[in-house]
């Protein structure tokens, strides 16, 4: 179901006559996203008494919520899709796994290479940028990487 929604959103963004073979949802964080989130957390905890929040657990929970929003704002979400015209990179929604706008068509020699990972996600080099891909999209990334290497 989720994959079908993602593929339909890619078709909607590209154009209706575009053939979409596969797509994967991924993200990358700005290199200062986590330090920025920690700074926002500390500021929220320290400034909470100014607005009348004295209870420490409440201050920490509010700080974590504000820090989560700060890190979310410093994260770029993308969809990589293999179409009949090549591999394209699209903007993606921060909340839903759908494509929202066109970014670029990757050059024909652009590689999709897995460069690391954990139990929950894998890191992929897509062109010149590194993205994190959830395990649910890993099979699609493997298919696109195999198709790209077969075309090279």
Question: TL;DR?
Answer:
The protein is of the alpha+beta class.
Describe the protein's architecture and organization.
- This protein is an alpha+beta fold.
- The protein folds into two domains: about 1-30 and about 75-150, Roll (PH-domain like); about 35-75, no CATH class.
- Helices cover about 40% and strands about 35% of the residues.
- It is built from four helices and seven strands; from the N terminus they run αβααββββββα.
- Strands 4-3-2-1-7-6-5 form a seven-stranded antiparallel β-sheet, with helices on both faces.
Q: How are the secondary structure elements laid out?
A:
Elements: H1 2-14, E1 20-29, H2 33-47, H3 56-73, E2 75-83, E3 86-92, E4 99-105, E5 112-117, E6 121-126, E7 129-134, H4 138-151
Antiparallel strand pairs: 1-2, 1-7, 2-3, 3-4, 5-6, 6-7
